[in-house]
Amino acid sequence: MNANPILLQKKYARIVELFAKRMGISIDKALDIFYHSEVYQLMRDGVSDLHCMSDGYLVDELEMEYKNVLFV
Predict the structure, then answer these.
(1) Taking a C-beta distance cutoff of 8 angstroms, is the pair 48, 42 a contact?
(2) Is pTM beyond 0.85 here?
(3) Cα angle vertex 10, ends 30, 64, to 5°?
(4) In Å, what is the CA distance from 67 to each residue of 2, 42, 57, 72?
């Protein structure tokens, strides 16, 4: 299922903002991390309706992915 592009962009913005707050990083850094993440790719491609998940859940997934990249 494909999401409305405008609504999806707004969801991306909410996720980036929440991720930046949670990690204590700038919006620019959070945006860079998000757009290079697997979470973004899966949402963009509509895989498993991931875009239907809550913002908090998606930020949790993004945080786990980011921490795994740091420690690999």
Answers:
(1) yes
(2) yes
(3) 40
(4) 29, 18, 15, 9
